[in-house]
C-alpha cells in the first residue's frame, strides 16, 4: 500500500501552490508520486458540486442541505479513486492530494455551531467516505493555517477555478462563512492531530519556499 498525503486549508491558503511544490520535490527525489485535486473539475463526477458552488441549490451556503452536499463531494472523490489513482496507490505510490474528505470536514462542518451536532456530522462523514465508500484514509494531513484577512488578499489576485473569471463561488463570496470555516478548521486540526503550519509570522506572510520547507519537513516523518 502507498501513502496518502493531504494538503488542507481554508480557501486561498496556498494548497495548490504547496501541493505542486511538494510534488515537484518528490519527483526530483525519484519518488513514485502522483498529484490529485478535489473537486476534480475535469471529471463529470464533479457536475453536482459545480451546481452547488454556482448557487443552483441555494444562493446562500446555509440554505443547502449539508449532508446532501457532502455526499456530492464524496462521490467525486470515489470516482477519482476508482478511475485515476487506486492502482497507483495500491502499488506503493505516494498520492499528494490538494483537498480531500478533510475539506468536507473544514467547510461543511463549519455550518454547525453546536458541538454535538458537529461531532456527530464528523463521525457520519468519516464513516461514509473511509468505511462505507472505502476510499483511503490519509496518512498525513498538512493543515496550512492562513488567517482569513490574509487569505482574502491572496484571493483577490486569483481567478475562479471553475470559470476562469473574477467571479467568486458561493463560499468565497461569504466573508462570515470564510471566518467560520477558519475557526472550524483550527478546531478540527486539533481534534484529528493534523500537522499545522502557520503561514504568517509576526503579521507577515511567510514566503512560498519557507512554507514549502516546513511542509517537506513534516512529510518526511512518513518515511521514517
Ligand atoms: N506564501 C505565499 N506568499 C505569496 N503568495 C502566495 C503564497 N502562497 C500562495 N500564494 C498565492 O496566493 C494565491 C492562492 O494560492 P493557492 O495555492 O491557489 O491557494 P488555494 O489552493 O489554497 O486556494 C495564488 O495566487 C498563489 O500564487
Ligand atoms: C473537495 C471539497 C471542497 N469543498 C469546498 C471548499 C471550497 O470552498 C469549494 C471549492 O473548492 P476549490 O475550488 O478548491 O476552492 P478554492 O480554490 O477557493 O480553494 O468547495 C467542500 O466543501 N468539500 C469538499 O470535499
Automatic annotation (TrEMBL):
InterPro entries: P-loop_NTPase, Thymidylate_kin-like_dom, Thymidylate_kinase. This is Thymidylate kinase. Keywords: ATP-binding, Kinase, Nucleotide biosynthesis, Nucleotide-binding, Transferase. Phosphorylation of dTMP to form dTDP in both de novo and salvage pathways of dTTP synthesis. Residues 7-186 form the Thymidylate kinase-like domain. The keyword Kinase applies. One of its GO terms (molecular function) is kinase activity. HAMAP family: Thymidylate_kinase. Its EC number is 2.7.4.9. It catalyses: dTMP + ATP = dTDP + ADP. It comes from the Bacteria. Belongs to the thymidylate kinase family. It is an enzyme of class 2 (transferase). The gene is tmk. It comes from Psychrilyobacter piezotolerans.
Amino acid at each position: 500500500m502507498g501513502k496518502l498525503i493531504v494538503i488542507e486549508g481554508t480557501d486561498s491558503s496556498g494548497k495548490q501552490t504547496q501541493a505542486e511544490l511538494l510534488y515537484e520535490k518528490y519527483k526530483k527525489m525519484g519518488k513514485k508520486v502522483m498529484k490529485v485535486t478535489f473537486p476534480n473539475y475535469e471529471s463529470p463526477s464533479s457536475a453536482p458540486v459545480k451546481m452547488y458552488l454556482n448557487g443552483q441549490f441555494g444562493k446562500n451556503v446555509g440554505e443547502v442541505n449539508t449532508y446532501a452536499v457532502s455526499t456530492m463531494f464524496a462521490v467525486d472523490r470515489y470516482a477519482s479513486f476508482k478511475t485515476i489513482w487506486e492502482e497507483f496507490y495500491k502499488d506503493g505510490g505516494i498520492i499528494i492530494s490538494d483537498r480531500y474528505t478533510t475539506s468536507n470536514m473544514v467547510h461543511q462542518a463549519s455550518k454547525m455551531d453546536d458541538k454535538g451536532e458537529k461531532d456527530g456530522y464528523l463521525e457520519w462523514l468519516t464513516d461514509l467516505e473511509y468505511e462505507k465508500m472505502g476510499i483511503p484514509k490519509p496518512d498525513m494531513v498538512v493543515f496550512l493555517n492562513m488567517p482569513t484577512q490574509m487569505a482574502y488578499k491572496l484571493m483577490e489576485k486569483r481567478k475562479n477555478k471553475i470559470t476562469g473569471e473574477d467571479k467568486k463561488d458561493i463560499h468565497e463570496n461569504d466573508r462570515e462563512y470564510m471566518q467560520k470555516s477558519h475557526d472550524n478548521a483550527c478546531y478540527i486540526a486539533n481534534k484529528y492531530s493534523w500537522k499545522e503550519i502557520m503561514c504568517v509570522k509576526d503579521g507577515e506572510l511567510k514566503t512560498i519556499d519557507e512554507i514549502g520547507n516546513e511542509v517537506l519537513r513534516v512529510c518526511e516523518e512518513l518515511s521514517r
